[in-house]
UniProtKB/TrEMBL annotation, chains A, B:
One of its GO terms (molecular function) is DNA binding. In the C-terminal section; belongs to the class-I pyridoxal-phosphate-dependent aminotransferase family. Coiled coil: none annotated. This is PLP-dependent aminotransferase family protein. PROSITE patterns: HTH_GNTR (PS50949). The keyword DNA-binding applies. Its cofactor is pyridoxal 5'-phosphate. It comes from Cohnella cholangitidis. Keywords: Aminotransferase, DNA-binding, Pyridoxal phosphate, Transcription, Transcription regulation, Transferase. Residues 11-79 form the HTH gntR-type domain.
């Protein structure tokens, strides 16, 4: 081989090598099926490290023109088309593997696959309401009142003005949060609000704190963004704010994500004292707080729990909520309220992401929230959720007795359960699926202990006992399978 | 000062220094209003470079506890609360500046501010239809046929199954593209499809090629993602595919973004020969193609122009389109079709971004597309757009004579104009706004020559002559202002 890489060039040596072979392969000098020199031989020949050759071959591999076959070395895989020209269609598998955004974990992907399909699972995994809990009448009324001779062009990117005014009034009335239409951004659920915050207010390498366990772990959005995440264990009264101080001192955390009321998955509520202390710490160290509050209007005891934002004197809190858990998750109406400068920054990003929210769901949400019928619906909803919780708890006790441990929540839609013994989470998940039941394994929510989240809001009352029975069967068969295993 | 940074530690020295002062400031040793040592003095004292001190002070500044005041050095700005404790609310301005996602440029931001508001601008900047071109009757019918007793939970994240089937049938019938429901992903407009492709199939440092000028330049989404973008000049017949070869050889571009039919902003269509050649090059070098096609159904001459995807034998093209330019942009219904593995990857990301599209607009879109009335609407739409184009062209000729140059397009909604002489783009933009007219300056679309894009689809027929007159007035007053300027 006469050619040698030129180490004085700016182009990295492994790229030079990969370019060299790419050209030769495209020219037909190495036909499909032939082998490239062995890594060791080529390294000696070109007078470079073997690792450089490996990088070069990896590069050719990712271009889709060679395959690295164990025991055979590096084999050319380029195809020719009918006219005899070399042909290399885009290597989609490589594109798919390469993207910056991380994939959901396999279990979450499996759970999502059945979202919105007609598969007859008893679904204790998804956080949405059962058909009888949706305010169908209210939705129909709101829907039938729309004229649709309205303007059908792009909506205001920050959200339809009337909807923002309605949300602002709703925040005042139901959550004691002062806001104005211009400090509200309409988002595609709380989900998109979290995503926008991450993309607009943080940068790779920044440190943040999130609850452990937490809904946040079910999302790779933090790690896709290159953030360092630190854990705040959730206790009976929620997180311990003092831990934020030490995280700050050690890691300079810039933001804390909390779901303080009827926390997903534990169902706990951050105590009043802790909420106060959290705000103090935030304004002592200048740490921003994101309050994710999808559940505060679902309290079974009618006690109001004040949102952090309603106690926030200094504007340290970004408040995120949505209609998903109280009206309809399919509408995809959520919002965020916070300082003007933040709302404007996020609005600009939303333009880039999706050019604003769809118009019709916004008009419907606005009708619905201002109809004066929300109170009646919420009362019905709370009663309905509580009865589903009781059915779930009773069924669990009947099936698993004291083996299963949990703290029944006072609101929300999730029951966080501890099951005894050593067991394999994935096995339980698959056995339950085989039995027609889906639940959320604890690890998906960042929990390292053996826990399961049973979300009781979606399953029909009549089917809850059956669902829990099937779940318990899966658990028991798992235990007996383990017990029968030869040691 | 007894303390010195420890250079043997992992923590960077500037962080050690900033931490040191932060603690002292929080302890009250440097009260609000006091100055920190000068950069020079401190550098000498601690035996480090002055640039290290600058980094440390910048860090304190970004924490919001000092301000760097010209001529005064670095001043502590920490406030105390009523109880006399130090108080530092999150420094939102710093958060807002810090995010990874880039901001839109100032002109684009100004244009978006008036989207969806009632401001009485004659809007030649936004790519949407005028009220008389929307299929209002069709929308009303589709709307009134909805039951809304349907399932109101999360939709399938890939998109409502019936809508995907309808889109697949539409693609076959109207665009000669074979697809199946499982190879279609419903997105929030073409916009979100582009965003998903970037986030899931590319990584920072990757090279891509985009048309020059192009809609893509109005979006910072490519640069936010850290991509290197290379330009493909758009000629009368579209881009020259051979340039892709040389870009590939030089920069290893991984993906080409094109809008081949009735291109935004030039209105040109990639010739049949060039389309064929583009596909050949794609499958010779393994370069993926993204075909963004919002306009192909708007041809004024009823000639069909085949989409790239309809000619794509090897699956090298990801095809993106939407209902924005033919039905209603406010619905936010777009889609992408391509290889299964890509669609699945993008679906997973869409779950993370917004948990799927809102349900009601999907049901409406599906009714509308399958109603059998689309043809009639499209015929009306084309006639309407052509008449708007003629009104615009006539008004331009009447106002600016041969001074303005353009190539009238055979479809689409944009007129790309060249205005003579040397003139200041931003001044023209602002003068036009003062005159009640908005247009898109060429630089927003990546053009370096003095061009303007006049989008004629939204303005009422009766107001087009007036709008163009006001635009021409702005242009003339700009010239006379320049002419009057003392030299
Ligand atoms: C704590 C929490 N945040 C956010 C979300 C996302 O909800 P949505 O995007 O539907 O508003 C959920 C849904 O389960 C949740 O439990
Ligand atoms: C070429 C092109 N692509 C994409 C878009 C985005 O359109 P939407 O997201 O509304 O489908 C536009 C809108 O102007 C466009 O012209």
């Amino acid at each position: 081989m006469e050619w040698k890489p030129d180490k004085s060039l700016q182009v990295p040596v492994y790229i030079q090598i990969s370019d060299y072979f790419e050209t030769r392969i495209l020219n037909g000098e190495y036909p499909s099926g032939s082998s490239l020199p062995s890594e060791r031989a080529l390294a000696a020949l070109l007078d470079v490290n073997r690792s450089t050759i490996i990088s070069a071959y990896d590069q050719l591999n990712s271009l889709g023109i060679v395959k690295r076959v164990k025991g055979f070395g590096t084999v050319v895989t380029l195809q020719k088309n009918e006219e005899g020209n070399v042909k290399r269609v885009p290597n989609w598998e490589e594109y798919v593997k390469g993207g910056m955004r991380h994939l959901n974990d396999p279990i979450t992907r499996q759970i999502h696959k059945i979202v919105g399909t007609d598969k007859p699972y008893l679904n204790f995994a998804i956080g949405e309401l059962s058909p009888d809990l949706f305010p169908v009448k209210l939705m129909q009324e709101a829907h039938s009142q729309l004229e649709l001779s309205q303007y059908l062009g792009y909506e205001h990117i920050q959200g339809n003005l009337r909807l923002r005014e309605t949300i602002s009034e709703h925040l005042r009335q139901y959550r004691h949060i002062p806001s104005t239409a211009s400090s509200v951004l309409v988002t595609s659920g709380a989900q998109q609000a979290l995503q926008l915050i991450i993309q607009c207010l943080l940068q790779p390498g920044d440190a943040i704190a999130i609850e452990d366990p937490s809904y946040c772990y079910s999302l790779p959005i933090f790690h896709s963004a290159g953030l360092r995440t630190y854990r705040l264990p959730v206790e009976r009264n929620g997180i311990d704010p003092e831990q934020i101080v030490s995280l700050y001192k050690q890691h300079r955390i810039k933001m804390v994500f909390v779901n303080p009321i009827f926390h997903n998955p534990t169902g706990t509520t951050l105590s009043y004292e802790r909420r106060k202390r959290l705000l103090e710490i935030s304004t002592k160290y200048g740490i921003a707080i994101v309050e994710d509050d999808p559940y505060s209007l679902t309290s079974y005891d009618h006690d109001t729990r004040s949102t952090l934002k309603s106690m926030d004197q200094d504007g340290s809190v970004l408040y995120v909520s949505s209609l998903s858990k109280i009206v309809s998750s399919g509408l995809r109406i959520g919002w965020i309220t916070g300082p003007q400068s933040v709302i404007q920054r996020l609005t600009d990003a939303k333009q880039q992401l999706d050019f604003g929210h769809s118009n019709i769901p916004q008009w419907i949400a606005s009708q619905l929230l201002s109809s004066g019928e929300l109170d009646n619906h919420l009362t019905k909803l709370r009663t309905g959720l509580l009865s589903k919780l009781e059915l779930t708890v009773n069924a669990l006790r009947a099936e698993l007795g004291d083996e299963v441990r949990f703290q029944a929540p006072l609101g929300g839609i999730h029951l966080w359960c501890e099951l005894p013994g050593e067991w394999d989470e994935l096995k339980l998940f698959n056995l339950a699926i085989d039995n027609g039941v889906v639940f959320t394994p604890g690890s998906t929510l960042g929990s390292s202990s053996r826990r399961v989240r049973l979300t009781y809001s979606k399953v029909d009352d009549l089917l809850i006992p059956q669902g829990i029975r099937k779940f318990a069967e899966a658990f028991r068969s798992l235990n007996s399978a383990t017990a029968n295993k030869p040691r």
